[in-house]
Amino acid sequence: MKYLKEFIALTSFIVLAAVILTASTSCSQFGFGNTGHSGHSGHSGHMGNMGNMGQNDENHDHSQPNEEIKKSDLIREGIVDLVALDENKDGKVFQDQMHWNVISDKTDSCPICFMKLTEVKLSDARTNLINNGYYVK
Asked: What is the pLDDT of residues 45-94, one digit of tens each?
């Protein structure tokens, strides 16, 4: 009886592992989840054919940003002055959670990944910038 219980437990574990492995493979195969694509780690806005936000080519190139991205006023370069960016002086800004130097004082979307900017306190925005290699005034 003891061996039968162990056999059933082991068999159940193997079947469960196979189901989980099959499900995760199927999900990534059809573009669900943050699987990314060839040569690029996954992130929101790049989920296969679903939700690709206008990125029609599975192998599109991020190394050459388009002119619209280059000209965006939301992309902060050099030393970031968060106090100056907080135009309404509410102690908060909107910051992209993937491209930390994309910051606005009003709700907007990131010109790089098209994600909605998240409202954060100035202290949190400062920490995010510093932790990701940016300089803050």
From this structure: 444 444 444 444 455 555 545 565 667 889 999 999 999 999 999 999 99
| Cα separation, 134 vs 81, whole angstroms | 11
Which backbone phi and psi does 48 adopt, to 5 degrees?
A: 60, -140
**pLDDT band, very low/low/confident/very high, at 16 (cuts 50, 70, 90):** confident
Longest dimension (CA), the chain: 74
Q: Which of 130, 105, 107 is nearest to 117 (CA)?
A: 107
Residue 74, exposed/middle/buried by CB under 10 A (0-12, 13-18, 19+)?
A: buried
